[in-house]
Specification:
This protein has five helices and five strands; from the N terminus they run H-E-E-H-H-H-E-E-E-H. By secondary structure, it is α+β, with helices and mostly antiparallel strands. The longest helix is centred in the N-terminal third of the chain and has 29 residues. 43% of the residues lie in helices and 28% in strands. It starts with a helix and ends with a helix. The protein has a five-stranded antiparallel sheet.
């Protein structure tokens, strides 16, 4: 076997492993029983899963044209923005809070939000990962 063939085979194996890893991520993200999103530092939705669309009543394209600020009840917005600012600044590693979404049909839905921050190699914030669990029944009971 020549050295060049070994390198090529290694690259193919790495590419296959990367493809499998990406497929696992996609399946986990899309099949999750909770709403999940990648959110820009400005609050804009970058990537959303089907469950988040179900929770909010918006399509994926409608959500990615909005920010979390747009669909957060005004009484809950300050606490969420304040925590997101602290998270981006590196003051906290993650946060969780209960808040209300403003759904597409005008109704509200209580969710438990857990948010963390993905950082670049230099430590600067890149984007948020947000997980939204439907707690509406418990809050209304």
């Amino acid at each position: 076997m020549s050295v060049g063939a070994g390198v090529g085979e290694g690259r193919t194996h790495d590419e296959e492993a990367l493809g499998r890893s990406e497929a696992r991520f996609r399946a986990t993200f899309e099949q999750a029983g909770v709403g999940m999103a990648h959110v820009g530092l400005d609050g804009r939705f970058l990537l959303v899963n089907a469950r988040l669309c179900d929770l909010t009543g918006f399509t994926a394209s409608e959500l990615t044209a909005r920010s979390f600020q747009d669909i957060t009840h005004r009484d809950d917005l300050h606490a969420d923005v304040e925590q997101a600012t602290r998270l981006a600044a590196g003051e906290i590693a993650s946060y969780a809070l209960e808040k209300r979404f403003l759904r597409r049909d005008g109704t509200t839905l209580w969710v438990r939000l857990t948010r963390s921050c993905v950082r670049r190699p230099d430590g600067s914030p890149d984007f948020f990962v947000s997980v939204h669990e439907d707690i509406d029944r418990q809050k209304r009971a």
